[in-house]
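User: Please fill in residues for this 884-position structure.
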């Protein structure tokens, strides 16, 4: 008996093998290799904390692909790294400093950046360790950071090129403004929420007339920046007022009435106020009509000096209150209605965003978008699943100029220097600029702003490999093979990488984009701290091991279907690990003195069958991985190991292993070793640690499963007939086992059975392999049925049917059908009582309205479970009644 431990120790195994793999440098990809290249760049996690369960899914899927391709003869590069996450990281560090009573501005830019770099080193190294705990086989020698020297060089080169080509420009335009962080935000960094607010109806008197307009707004403070009232030019109610002026309430000025067909005559009063500096639609109207653009806010969204003296320096919502009071006193507030409307909030700070007129840097992405759109339309870049192309085209077909400047300190500082004498802007990749390139003045200053995080992230596939230089890594591994990512950054990142790839390298950045699912809790809810349903992947790994977590995620990673993560399921896959461990212990225990995994020349019928099933599994796993059907690939190898190898073949082989001749024992042992060793190779991309542990214990193993060859199908053409025969035998055995389960027959109870079939192969096999029926179906004698009609007429004769024939089981003296029916009925009544409670609750409208979502989801989940149990019990009771 081998000294192998009784139980598998995941913690010890994971530490041991990951370090061994690192020591052997297995994960490093050789850019000079003659093997075909396969490459993935990791979606770089933000250096803002811990990895979450969504990261665990994304990283696991990439590792599956990389390990598979590495074993399958490719030079496989998985390039890791982290993202500086400009605004998110700055917020984290600012909060940490604030807790110590330190203000960022008082600290100063350079000292603050030192603090951020300290945080980055701490957080970045923590993320790397978490990836290693998960088993990620990244090429750590090539680890990159979006603000390291190499990436910074690429970012500066990209900015300067686009600027000198006229694609990047500086302009005063309306942006989303976060008054807390005091920076511009992209549309995608603004989260819109429906808020119960108010609609205010304000009277605007026409100058020199008794007439007036009543105009509705949800933001009355913005009237301080109004520069026009617009009406539809064909609106008979107001046509005569076009060209007149109205008195702007509370302000010592008048504004024009203009006609514009933007106005919906049927909405409200048919008249609108125009605030070009604080509304995106109004900004476009203002440009069309040459209206003055009056900014009324400071960077912190207080009222500035462009407003009447009374409101200056007021916080925006305090100003709103004061303005409403003054409007009411002046008789200009007509009415106030409750109103549900959408409010934009900054994703990171949570502050209500203001449309704000500001000088910013922009990219004219329209000139970059055409090639990127065409690439997906022509399938040069392919989305999997394909339906995500619609999301991609929605963004690309409605693309607008991209504001890339951010009023932050952490990030790539914009390489632009302003001359204080001639006004020229020097844009260059040089890090230290001393003089204006136009007038040579030394009075220059660098732009204080940094670039949007996504500007650097768009260069990730090629900047990480050495661009703008020409490197062997870039030559070998770019374009990359596939990008694995989530749907929520298709435009944030995926589209921009495709645009950047064609713009800067004249190539696609990757061949395929695999969009994975979201990980939700077991009730289908999105995970969030507020709900309290967040699952920490590191906690799961500590308790259950990385392999169980990985396999749980992979097994549910079906295309287009979100994952419902249940701890019970993770625990279930630890049972799978233990099943394999016990199979290894059995294999080692039954080995001959000189074991081998070399297949014998003469195969028993069960040997041929299991090798045929192994062939089919190899094909299924390859097909699943090649088509990104991760769940189907994992289901195939799980089914083979658990059901076909452990539950069937080992039981079939026991007779030879324990009682056979030396030759029979050696043959069965060799086949078992071969199947287990091959299974570990197949399973390795999914469960890297336990497979290496088992692989190393088996005869015929190589240096490491990491670098062994991925299995290919054997030529079993000479064994086609015995495999077919065995399939029929197995189907017959399975049908008997099903009856035993349904009738609650003890495994200790031996059965008589009668075979009815015209299949000559099955007739011969039933006699020849009767020991299989004994071992797996507990059938002591399998008779050839003679008088079929008489047999069918016997009381208590139960039929087990397959596509190859029928087996009759005389159970009258074995099963008390009446007692069994009573037992089932009692069980049914008990389950039905519980089911009725849930059914009544879920039919109660009052309960559905008042109960917490979590409670409702749990109850629905249990309701469905009980319903399935009732249906099964009904089926079994019907069978019992047939034999009374």
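Assistant: Residues filled in for all 884 positions:
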């Amino acid at each position: 008996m081998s000294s192998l431990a009784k139980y598998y120790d995941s913690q010890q195994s994971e530490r041991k093998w990951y370090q061994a793999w690192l020591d052997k440098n297995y994960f490093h990809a050789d850019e000079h290799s003659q093997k075909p290249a396969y490459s993935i760049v990791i979606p770089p996690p933000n250096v803002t904390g811990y990895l979450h369960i969504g990261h665990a899914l994304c990283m696991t899927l990439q590792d599956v692909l990389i390990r598979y391709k590495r074993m399958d003869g490719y030079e496989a590069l998985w390039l890791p790294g982290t993202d500086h996450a400009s605004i998110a990281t700055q917020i984290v560090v600012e909060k940490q400093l604030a807790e110590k009573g330190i203000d960022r501005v008082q600290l100063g830019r350079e000292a603050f950046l030192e603090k951020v770099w300290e945080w980055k080193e701490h957080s970045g190294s923590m993320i790397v360790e978490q990836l290693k705990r998960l088993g990620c086989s990244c090429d750590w020698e090539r680890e990159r950071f979006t603000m390291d020297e190499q990436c910074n060089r690429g970012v500066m080169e990209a900015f300067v090129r686009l600027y000198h080509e006229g694609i990047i420009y500086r302009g005063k335009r309306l942006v989303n403004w976060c008054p807390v962080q005091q920076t511009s935000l992209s549309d995608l960094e603004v989260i819109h929420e429906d808020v119960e607010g108010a609609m205010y109806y304000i009277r605007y008197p026409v100058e020199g007339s008794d007439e007036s307009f009543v105009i509705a707004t949800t933001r009355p403070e913005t009237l301080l920046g109004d520069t026009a009232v617009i009406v539809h030019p064909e609106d008979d109610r107001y046509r005569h007022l076009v060209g007149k002026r109205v008195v702007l309430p509370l302000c010592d000025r008048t504004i024009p009435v203009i006609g514009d067909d933007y106005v919906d005559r049927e909405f409200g009063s048919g008249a609108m106020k125009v605030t070009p500096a604080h509304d995106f639609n109004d900004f476009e109207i203002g440009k069309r009509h040459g209206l003055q653009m009056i900014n009324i806010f400071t960077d912190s969204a207080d009222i500035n000096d462009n407003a009447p003296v009374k409101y200056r320096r007021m916080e925006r919502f305090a100003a709103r209150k004061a303005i409403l009071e003054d409007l009411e006193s002046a008789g200009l507030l007509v009415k106030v209605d409750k109103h549900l409307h959408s409010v934009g909030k900054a994703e990171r700070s949570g502050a209500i965003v203001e449309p704000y007129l500001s000088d910013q840097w922009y990219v004219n992405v329209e000139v970059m978008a055409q090639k990127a759109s065409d690439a997906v339309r022509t399938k040069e870049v392919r989305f999997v699943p394909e339906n995500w192309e619609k999301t991609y085209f929605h963004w690309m077909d409605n693309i607008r100029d991209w504001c890339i400047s951010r009023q932050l300190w952490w990030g790539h500082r914009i390489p632009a220097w302003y001359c204080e004498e001639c006004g020229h802007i020097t844009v260059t990749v040089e890090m230290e600029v001393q003089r204006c390139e136009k007038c040579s003045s030394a009075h220059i200053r660098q732009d204080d702003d940094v670039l949007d995080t996504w500007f650097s992230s768009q260069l990730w596939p090629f900047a990480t490999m050495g661009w703008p230089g020409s490197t062997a890594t870039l030559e070998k591994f770019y374009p990359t093979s596939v990008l694995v990512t989530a749907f929520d950054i298709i435009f944030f990142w995926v589209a921009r990488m495709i645009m950047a790839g064609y713009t800067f390298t004249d190539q696609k950045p990757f061949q395929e984009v695999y969009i994975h699912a979201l990980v939700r809790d077991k009730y289908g809810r999105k995970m969030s701290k507020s709900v309290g349903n967040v699952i920490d992947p590191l906690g799961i790994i500590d308790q259950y091991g990385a392999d169980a977590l990985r396999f749980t995620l992979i097994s549910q990673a079906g295309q287009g279907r979100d994952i419902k993560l249940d701890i019970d399921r993770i625990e279930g896959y630890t049972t799978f690990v233990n099943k394999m461990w016990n199979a290894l212990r059995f294999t080692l225990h039954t080995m001959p003195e000189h074991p081998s995994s070399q297949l014998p020349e003469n195969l028993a019928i069960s040997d041929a069958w299991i090798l045929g099933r192994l062939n089919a599994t190899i094909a299924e796993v390859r097909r699943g991985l090649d088509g990104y059907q991760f769940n189907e690939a994992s289901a195939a190898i799980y089914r083979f190991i658990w059901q076909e190898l452990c539950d069937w073949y080992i039981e079939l082989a026991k007779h030879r292993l324990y009682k056979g001749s030396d030759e029979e024992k050696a043959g069965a042992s060799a086949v078992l070793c071969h199947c287990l060793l091959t299974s570990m190779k197949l399973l390795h991309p999914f469960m890297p640690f336990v497979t290496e542990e088992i692989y190393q214990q088996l005869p015929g193993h190589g240096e490491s499963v990491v670098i062994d060859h991925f299995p290919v199908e054997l030529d079993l053409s000479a064994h086609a007939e015995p495999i077919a025969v065995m399939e029929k035998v197995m189907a017959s055995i399975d049908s008997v086992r099903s009856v035993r389960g349904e009738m609650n027959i003890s495994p200790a109870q031996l059965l008589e059975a009668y075979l009815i079939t015209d299949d000559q192969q099955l007739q011969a096999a039933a006699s020849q392999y009767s020991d299989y029926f004994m071992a797996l179906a507990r059938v002591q004698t399998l008779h050839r049925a003679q008088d079929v009609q008489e047999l069918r007429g016997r009381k208590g004769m139960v039929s087990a049917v397959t596509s190859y024939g029928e087996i009759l089981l005389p159970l009258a003296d074995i099963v008390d059908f009446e007692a069994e029916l009573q037992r089932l009925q009692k069980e049914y009544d008990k389950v039905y009582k519980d089911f009725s409670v849930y059914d009544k609750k879920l039919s109660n409208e009052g309960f559905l309205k008042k109960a917490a979502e979590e409670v409702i989801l749990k109850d629905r989940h249990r309701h469905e479970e009980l319903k399935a149990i009732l249906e099964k019990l009904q089926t079994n009771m019907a069978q019992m009644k047939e034999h009374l």
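For context: The chain is about 45% helix and 15% strand.
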